[in-house]
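Kindly inspect this today.
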Amino acid sequence: MVLTVSAASASSPREDAAMSALGSSFTQGTVAVEGTTLHYVKGGSGAPLVLLHGWPQTWVEWAPVMPALAQGHTVIAFDLPGLGTSTVPTGGFDKATTAKRIREGVQKLGFTGQISILAHDVGSLVAYPYARDYPTEVSRLAVLETPLSGFGLENFYGISWHLGFNQTAAPVPETIMDNDDVPTYLGWLFSGAPHPDRIPQQTYFDAYSYPARRTAGYNYYRAFSGDAADNQAKAPGHHLQMPVLAMGAEFAFGPVVAQSFGQVADDVRSVIAPDSGHWISEENPAFLIDCANLFFGPPGGVPSRPELNNCVA
């Protein structure tokens, strides 16, 4: 069963503008999977590279890097279930279920062989069980700006109050946000970035202006404790064998991402994105493009500067 959100069934004018800016080589569509319908944007050619956004964002966070990445890959940017213009499921916000849904979407789009994944924030928490539960289907994994539930994320609950607020049982966050003052809350999150002007904040304010979308976002956080238990139970016998690029921002998580994923994977490359806060794909897209092209590209790439050394395939 899917909880419909009729008012949010279409993309906003700002998302339409982001789509148009990508050019005619990119297309968008939806694909039905168990419990929801996923919205995606796709372009390029070559080996598939799946992009998973974070909260409180949508596929649009990848817009600054998609054209460059599409020169060597078929890039597929999904809206996570319940967010963006994907429909809102009635349950299944734990990351293993979400990974299963994304995988179903990938395969229904015709990509039944190996893929690579580039993910940020909550998207990284989904990418991990995707790679863990379907290890023969993921050749490379890049995770940006989050430690893993059960392996370090909990250490930050007292540092940023939104981590606890979003996990609070319904209807507390929903009631507090009933006045629909989305820009105050989400704007506060973005205001901590070194370059908030590079983030299309109003696009995300629009995307989360619907109560059901906000609840879906909270539900991803409310599932953190269950995610941690699942990760801790499965990690000992399911260490990731594929290369993992763990990127933290200079002014945010830094080396913590690699320290976390080093507990669940055997080949982890630690990279620090310079001159960036949490929103790397928008604050420093050039660095992310250079690193991703090295990591997801053919072996033997030559880094143009020392910060990229660990990005080499």
Summary: Residues 32 and 135 are 23 Å apart (CA to CA).
